[in-house]
Model the fold of this input.
Amino acid sequence: MSSENLIEINDLNFSYSTRAILKGIHMTMPRGKVISIMGGSGSGKTTLLRLISGEIRPSAGYVKFSGDVVHELSRDKLFKLRRKMGMLFQFGALFTDLSVFDNVAFQMREHTDLPESMIRDLVLMKLDAVGLRGAHHLMPNELSGGMARRVALARSIALDPSLIMYDEPFTGLDPISLSVIGNLIRRLTDTLGMTSIVVTHDVQKSLKIVDYVYFIADGVIAAEGTPKEVMESTAPFVHQFIHGEEDGPVPFHYSGQSYRQDLDLGDTRV
Amino acid sequence: MSKYIVSVIQNIGHRVIESIWRLGVGSRFFLLVLLKSGTSLRRFNLVIRELYFTGVLSLIIIVVSGLFVGMVLGLQGYETLQKYGSESAVGTLVALSLVRELGPVVAALLFASRAGSAITAEIGLMKATEQLAAMGLMAVDPVARVVAPRFWAGVISMPLLAAIFSVMGVLGGYLVTVVFIGVDQGTYWSQMQSAVDFRFDILNGFIKSCFFGVAIAAIAVFEGYDAPPTAEGVSGATTRTVVTSSLAILGLDFILTAFMFRGVS
Done:
């Protein structure tokens, strides 16, 4: 494995009982880059993140993180590996019984023996990086959606991970918060030297901040390339996705029997 | 008709199999919680925090209910006993009823409704809002960090609350029979003291409440952790906690009473 690649995914397959979600995915994610994974709802993007973090096991193939095959690790080793990962959930997933400060301090208290005075300084530094140092005393229910997302971002970089995974980080944000989160993802990746994986639907925002894009459709990689390449792509799926066209390779109508048949008009022709 | 009967039998069979399967999953989860209780013991402040939410916040309902149950017992007991000229035994009646049965059982039923449902709802909502998943991805085991402290807080709170319930009941009985009705207070206390045995009554009542505590806490944390991550799922799990805990308390009470007081007169 190349030392430049933090993650290598090879022939990755995953099924929920008999329903195949991912079918032979190949990806490489170099260190220090922002990689975007795009695709329609239910295309398996979040499943891919769960496979990378070792929450679920692949049916075939593997994910390598820093040279380790994730699903072959023992529970203890997997937990050690996860200390190198951060994850930003769609709606932040902040611990609602802890304050903003305690949320960011959570991992430091759980995994390190740092004195409380040092934890305080580190937490304030992390919160300052997302512009919320002044909100450290608030509870999660006092935060707006954008602020909660920023606190969750500060929490996910608490132990300076090598990788951060963002699951739909732009969902439900106003344009200002959206821009703030997008810029933070880029800035934190560059300043902390991490690798970022952004799972998103938001084409316009994400193409401005990412280095490389993978499109997933029907469980396979439908297209990939730099933002410039995908913007200029003539592949039907990429074109439909980027321009938000109603019909195309992803059909408007869910497959079923013919319209005439459904209306009992006696003709089975479509 | 035969199809209908087959379908009914199939339905019953399905429900029985599902219940047994769920009991198995719940038992395995219970063992898992016990295995992962090391963190709770090492960092006892996590349990103390939960003791506040589970135990201290249940005090009001336990104290008020205990007082009223004792007052009613005193009133009803006095009315019945005076017919036989035995009103001096009212203290004994109040104390034995509370320490042996009503204290542990009613306190457990109240605890299941007040604290058990809250534990289930909290864990279920943490699951629905991905807080447990987030914790797992931070390499922190949610069973050790979230579930086990709540379980032990429930186990510790229950006997203490049952004892407080019984004490308040005895005081309630005193208030009605001695202060309001005028039974001699020396008789009230001395009859109680001579009739209530530490080993058979108080200790057995304490053991009962410990069993109830384990049952309620185990059911509450399992239902919360196993709840489907939706509003409907959490609401269903909360209801199941109260119903299952209440039935478990009454069933356990019968079994424990049969073992503890068999042949004692």
Observations:
- Residues 234-270 of chain A form one domain.
- The interface with chain B takes residues 53, 55, 79-80, 82-83, 85, 87, 89-91, 93-97, 106-107, 110-111 of chain A (CB under 8 Å).
- Strands of chain A lie at 5-16, 19-30, 34-38, 60-65, 68-69, 85-88, 163-167, 195-200, 212-217, 220-225.
- Chain A has two domains: 5-233, 234-270.
